[in-house]
Amino acid sequence: MAGMESEQYATEDIVELDYGNGTAAVVHLHGATVVSWKFQGEEILFCSKKAIFDNKKAIRGGIPLVFPQFGPWSLGPQHGFARIRRWKLVSTPMQDSRGNITAVFSLEDDKRTRELWDKKFELVYTVCLWKTSLELNLKVLNRDESSFEFTTLMHTYFTTPDVTKTSVIGLKDLQFIDKVQDGALMTENRGAVFVNENYDRVYQNAPNEIVVNKVGTGKTKVIIKKTNFPDVVVWNPWEEKAQGMADFDEKEYKTMLCVEVGSVFNQVTLGPGEQKEFSQIISVAPAE
Predict the structure, then answer these.
(1) What is the pTM of this model?
(2) Catalytic residue at 30?
(3) Quick check: is 79 catalytic?
């Protein structure tokens, strides 16, 4: 266990995938949240220094998993319960012949989830660390006798030295809902999207490849390749909203940007016994 990780998190709560040469990922069992991904010593993900690790509250940073509801939920907590339940490690990190390391986690319905959402389900989350990539695959299985509907998303927080210089490429001409503007439906006209204000936009039917330029130390870009995630959310709380967040330092909005892949515009329906997989592969490359 790397020194920083063992000091920051309780050892029994985390699983580390160590590729070597400073490349590693850390998964917290609370929410199966990837809380750190380093590429050759460079941290790619943002995790707030005020993040609360009490195994109750959602972790402010990394890659929380949203299921079965994106956003406010009349039946339970915002963004559902997957990110605030303890997941089970079903396959400890294993290295294949190419050096890639894979760990598998699962979450099944129980009395507490059924009190909120009376459905029988299983989630299987596979985390694979490659030399220059992190692959995340979420499989949703319907164990119920009837169909159910859900939305889901991977709420990725990227770190950056200056959010105003970080851009998201691949959203041009897409329709989006601007949640800051009371849900107004608009069209993106920029080839490179920069953020310099309170920003919360849900882009519909995004291409399967999105680029986020100048993350990590600012010298890196990430290429996100997604499958069965038609939508992309770009979010930054900016100054005023950050001041009202207990688990987020009021200045940290300057050093993070969420670029989240999801299936949130339209609900996904699974019949009894059906399953569906959702994935993103995040790869690092030199910044443009």
Answers:
(1) 0.96
(2) no
(3) no
